[in-house]
Amino acid sequence: MAMSEALTTTRAPARWQDYLQLLKPRVMSLVVFTGLTGLVCAGHAVNPVLGAVAILCIAVGAGASGALNMWYDADIDAKMRRTRGRPVPAGRVQGADSLALGVVLSMFSVMLMGMALNWLAAGLLAFTILFYAVVYTMWLKRWTAQNIVIGGLAGALPPVIGWAAATGSAPLNAWLLCAIIFMWTPPHFWALSLYTSEDYEKAGVPMMPVVAGAKSTRKQILIYSLLFTPICLLPAVTGLGGTLYLGVAALGGLVFLILAVRLSRSHAGEAGGQRNDDGLYDVRAGARDARNLFAFSILYLTLLFATLLGEHLMGLPALELLR
Amino acid sequence: MSDPGRESEVETKARRGRNIALALGLVLFVILIFVVTIIRLGGNVANRPL
Q: What's the gap in Å between the CA of A195 and the closest CA on chain B?
C-alpha cells in the first residue's frame, strides 16, 4: 500500500473540525436524504425516534466509510487539487487516527442499527461500508476505469437500508430507488471527470477519460443517460411515485438527455477544456457542456427523491400504470 | 526562551476542543442507548417471570 510522507508528520494540531471533515459531511447529507426517502417511502409506521436513529446510523456509517477512504487514499488525495486540503494529506490528522475513527464508527453504526431497528438493515449497512472501503477504495479505484460504475453501488444502497430499517424487508421498489442512483452515477462522475481528468491522471487514478479518452467517455455518458432516464420513470409504474413524480421525472429526464446529447457533440475533456482553479463549476468554454450535465445531474436526482419524499409525506396517491 | 516540551497555546486549545467534542459524543451516545432501550422494551418490561 502506498502512503504519502504526509501521513507520518503532523504540521498543525488536529481540531475536532478536522475529524468531522474526515466523515465527508457533504456526502453524509446526500446519504441522509436518500436514506430518509427510502424510510418514508416504505410506508410503514416507525417510531419517530427509532426512525431518527436509523438515519443517524446510515449517516455515521457513511462517515465511517469516508474516514476509511481518506486513510487509504491519502497518497492520491495529496496529488489532486480538489482533495489535497483534506486533513490526512494536509498533515493535520494522522492516517492511523483516520483508520481508527473509521473502524470504530463502522462498528457502532452497524451494531446500533441491528439493536435499535433490525439486522437486515444492519447487514446492508455493513455491506455498504465494506463495499465502499474495501471493494471500491482499495481495489476498483486504482485498478479499472469501471471503478465508479461498480463502486456506485455503495452510494446507491442507502434508500434500501432506510426501507429495510422501516419494514425489515427490501422489496422491488426499494431496489428501484437503488437502481436510479446506480445508473445516475456514471454520467454524473464522468461529466465531472471530463474537466478534472488532469488531476486523476497526475494521481494515477484510471478514470474513464484518462484510460479511454474524452470522446469515448462522452459516448458512454450518452449511453448511460439513455438507460438512466427511462428507469427514473419506473416508480410511476410500480406504485411508488404519483402524477407529480411522473411529471418531474419526464421533464427532468428530457433536459438530462438534451444535455447529454449536447455533451456528446462537444469537445469537452479534450486539450484546453480543463477547469481553471479549484472550483468545480468554473471551467473553460470547452468543458461547459460537461459542467452543465454535472450540475444538472445533481439537481435532477435531488428533485426526483424530494418529489417522492414529498408525495409520501403528503399522502398523495401513487400511480400504478401497470395494474 | 520557550520550553520545546511544553504545549503551545494553539495546541492546548485544539486538544481542549477535541476533548469537549469527544465528551459530548459519549454523553449523547449513552442517552441514545437509554432512549432506544426504553422504546424497544415498551410496556413489555412488566411481562416477565418474577
A: 37
